[in-house]
Amino acid sequence: MRRITGKTKDETLIELQGPRESQITDESSGNGVNSLSETTPLPGHAETDKLHSNKDTVFFRDGVRRIDFVLSYVDDKDGEKKQERRREFEANLEKAGLELETEDKSDSKDQKTYFLKIHAPWDVLATYADVLKIKVPFKESDIPQGAPLEWLSHPFRLPGHITHPQKDYFTYPFDKGKTDFFLINDKDTFFPPSTRNRIVFYILARCPYYKEGRTDKEKTGIKRLLSNGTYTAAFPLHDCRYWKKARNAKCESERFNLYEHWARFLCFYKEQPLNLIRKYYGEKIGIYFAWLGFYTEMLFFAAVMGLICFTYGVLSYDDNISSKEICNATIGGTIVMCPLCDKKCPFWRLNSTCLSSWQSHLFDNEGTVFFAIFMGIWVTLFLEFWKRRQARLEYEWDLVDFEEEQQQLQIRPEFEIRCTNRRLNKITQEMEPYLPITSKCARYSLSAATVLFWISLIVACIIGVIAYRLAVYAAFASIIKDPLRKIQVVGRFITPQLATSVTASCINFVIIMILNFFYEKVAVWITDMEIPKTHLEYENRLTMKIFLFQFVNYYSSCFYVAFFKGKFVGYPGKYSYMFGQLSKLRNEECDPGGCLIELTTQLVIVMAGKQLWGNIQEALLPLMRNWWNSRRGRHNPENHYSRWEQDHVLLNFSQLGLFYEYLEMVVQFGFITLFVASFPLAPLLALFNNILEIRVDAWKFTTQFRRPVASKARNIGAWHEILNAVAILSVVTNAFIMAFTSDMIPRMVYLYAYSPDGSMNGYIDKSLSIYNITQIPKINMPEDRWFDNSTGTCRYRDYRYPPGHKREYTHTMHFWHILAAKMAFIIIMEHVVFVVKFFVAWMIPDVPSDVKARIKRERYLIQEYLHNYEVEQLKLQLSASFITEPLSEMSLSMDKHEVLSECL
């Protein structure tokens, strides 16, 4: 018989008393082989022969024991050394109570791969469920279910025979010593497959592969065996093929249901089967899809409001007096503008920017201010309502009392191996590895220097793109000698400004993708170099590094266009240069319609390009890799291969798989919040992308990846704090965009303070200053000195006194009024939005009241039922002692009398 005792919460010592009767070990091959696999099938199973002939099953050869995990390996030139490791590892797995069964390479289609199937019997599952504090039902819930307006969502719900709604139960952490306290109807199905594979992986990750009596603690865990090539893969099995239900009635066919009713794009309007996702993949993946679905739902409201704002811009198209003046031949056609660059750029007429001024009005109008304020409040509502949704999921998925301390106490194997120093843990009173402070400081310093170097590299690339913009604009300007001519491209006309903005944005996007490829590898390297102690610490550090890099990489070009372009230009005769006057690269000027349309172009290209490239990567790359893996050695239809072979050729879902999914969405979140004032349709683009993203991710999980090991998570982790930081920053950036990038404030100041008739008539003339052409230095004068101007002056965008004034070319009071209005607008908008944000956050509780009541009710009932259970158990023990050892009333001790009276 087997005895399993636990020393601590995170370390279980398993001993065997006597030889195992059900298993033998093949010492010659180093494989643990179950004796039942080599004998006749168990009696009473009529379908055993059928199961033998068809390997598309998730059970051992006996058709009874479920395969909870599969390890694969091949023989190679280092076979003896690896065989010794496998022999010791598998022997230790058997000592831990796991049951093994091996598929010989001759039975595999490639004739090279061995498959080791692992089954966890009830005793092992019960022991480690106790260790891991897995919650299981002990009583059916008596709290009413259902929402008052549930019928409204009925058209979007999946049918009951797909979701398999189950009764709600009160749950409590499993205790092996109180099995009769829990509702155990069938031990084979009491723990779902996701829980079973989680328990088995817990054992695999801590099982040593050294001989008994040795202390080579670094020789521990399946991860090291995978890294050194002893095993080629380790994975739990999918329950069936995704396009066909399992033949065995015992198998749930949940993968098939997920594919048919979740992963297919035609189900985009249906709700996600979150409970089924959680049951099949675990809480960590379930919480990701819950967050992604909730984020997409909230995007719908932002998209509708952005579409309304854009529609307002279209409907007010004919009321745009400023654009009419620019396009008017008698107004804009007679205004000669100063050159936008030295030598190559000619004088040009204002009406040449007619098209861009109309385009700018679509996004730069009165509705944009309202939309910027709305998005500041929307972000708060999104985060607050997500907290409530998350709290409800925590209760429904038994995560209320789940603490990440379990993950925090689980030391990474890499930390144990690389840290040779030991010290006493004051909590556990055990010796544990630690990293000396000197080594830690050195590693952190090198890590910080590396991060700063790569951020500096991004800034250098952005400067290079800016230099390209300046150079290419001069090149386009030299081609267009006549300012009324344009370049014809594919039947459409574009201006040099538009050509410069589009090509620079495309180049910037390519640079972003290249830098991302390299930095992801660098970030993993420097995080490994820091040697984080736990997996949770490792993920948080890697998250902060990569997001910081992505933030600078994706948003720096938008920050340049929004807050720097056109702000440090100077004026004719005293222009500012990027690298000094010798560089001949004069700082860029904004279009007369403002820089907002260029920011819109930059945002659309980078955001849309990233989403398109991301979807191509997520859909095509896994498909191509799996096709390449499956084509080798396969000449038969798919149903001729065993379930473990079908899963073996799929891609492995790494521990950081969800990390990149979150990162993609958080970067998108930054685009639709930080710069949404420049492009109100950004939430609409994000909504369309996310509808596709959910189904693409679902398709990947169900068809292209092996089944990941189930793991718990009660929230989205460090990403929530990142979203909070982006939300706060978005209020500031949108306020500055409306003040300094948009032309809204100058128009308002003119309308209410300088307009002679209370309208926008004359605004264009008032917003352009005058410069005497004869005063333009030779270095700034165009090579082609064409200008049709009887006054001998040119105009430029600024508020300065004209030539001949006693304060010639200095800023007018109009400039200072506008600056004061901009600062006032920033202060007012930020304070209004922040006050509303904090008020909304205060008004909306993080946990719904009904969830609070359910949690309190459940805790109360747990205490009550535990108390009653202990009393009943004590009664039974005392009754048994009276029967087996009859004692007279006088011989009973006072202690027993007191205990019995208390119980009764």
Automatic annotation (TrEMBL):
A Pfam family this protein belongs to? Anoct_dimer
Listed transmembrane segments: 288-315, 367-386, 451-476, 496-519, 546-564, 666-688, 722-741, 823-844
Which family does the UniProt entry place this protein in? Belongs to the anoctamin family.
Segment forming the signal sequence: none
Q: Which organism is it from?
A: Parambassis ranga (Indian glassy fish)
Q: What is this protein called?
A: Anoctamin
Locate the Anoctamin dimerisation domain: which residues?
59-274
> Which GO terms label this protein's molecular function in UniProt?
chloride channel activity; protein dimerization activity
The protein's location, in the record's own words, is: Cell membrane; Membrane
* Polar residues: compositionally biased ranges: 20-40
What top-level branch of life does the organism fall under? Answer: Eukaryota
Q: Which UniProt keywords apply?
A: Cell membrane, Glycoprotein, Membrane, Transmembrane, Transmembrane helix
The record's region (Disordered) falls at 1-50
> Which gene codes for it?
LOC114433012
Kindly give the InterPro entries that the UniProt entry links to this protein: Anoct_dimer, Anoctamin, Anoctamin_TM
- Report the membrane topology from the UniProt record: Multi-pass membrane protein
Q: Per the annotation, which location comes first and is thus the protein's main one?
A: membrane
Q: Does Glycoprotein count among this protein's keywords?
A: yes
A GO CC term assigned to this protein in UniProt: plasma membrane
